[in-house]
Structure prediction request, 366 residues.
Amino acid sequence: MGSGQSLNMGTTMPRRLPLYCCEDTDRHGNIRIYFRRKGQPKVRLRGMPWTPEFMARYERVLNGNAAPTQASKSKPETWRWLCEQYMACAEFKKLRGTTPATRRRILESTWKEPISPESKLLFGEMPIAKMTQVAVRVLRDRKAEFKSAANDRRKVIGYVFGWGIEAHPHIVLTNPVRDVARLKHKVTNVPPWSETDFRVFMQKYERGSKERRAMALHLYTGARGCDVRHFGPQHMRDGRFVFTQQKTGGDVDVPVLEELARELALAPQDALAFILTEYGKTFSQKGYGNWFNEKCRDAGLKNRTAHGIRGGAATIAANNGASVHQLMSMFGWLSESMAIRYTKQANRKSLADSGMPLIKLEQNAS
Prediction:
């Protein structure tokens, strides 16, 4: 098979692939095989799996001796070149969760944009010196219909230039994003769960059920769905629940409360994850969110999602007197800003409760 040929293996491909290999179907329906291993670049493996040629390539990649599948086609000192330099740097490789893929997708989308509707020149070919605030504003405004996406594009472009000023000071002289404003739009925050919401959910699903166990893991560890879907006995150590957050990389070390211990004692003890699909597999991130949100709707909670549980738990803790630093430790926040939001709300409520009785009208004795 030629190097430029796409792979369409039909029914002759073995069901199981070598370790770290996975299938991916392109937009033409052709199946491609990739090597994906944490800490290494994604590499396409051409040819039929298990053939000598395929396995020779696989062994080279497995041992870390393979170059990325596609060499960069960018010209030096262009916008695409700078983006590729940024995505290969140590700072980018430290990003967690879905952040690297999101930034990569946003940056690659800018390369394909023409500099003007009638031009054949793409922004990816734009010399860095010409990537001025005007160019950034054009790229931002191409997404103006979706203001959040427009602001995300502006923000990620800013990350590249901010890094470039330090990494290539003789090439990247300024960060043009500083002179381009964010598009104003109303952000709809995910509604936090109330105590009533939690009670409704728990009344719907009995102890020992997968739904009740998932709620206990969310509520009593303060974790997001992307972490909960992986939780298993390996995260419990000497009566404590210990994990590293996928989104931020922050470490969380909290005691296993009695309510959580009771639910986990009813979970299957022979699996590496407490929450599994009906096929006995761990959930994908999107799959877990969809499953949990469906269970919320089944309980009559139509506007509640897994994403809002952290806010609800933080609100309850703050109302019960949790301090800023306690909330930071409980929920793995790396800065005080999020914790302060909840303690301010709690303090405002407490002050209002104590202050309202002070509204008195002086009555003149008659």
In short: The CA atoms of residues 290 and 322 lie 31 Å apart. DSSP finds 14 helices and six strands in the chain. The longest helix spans residues 147-167.
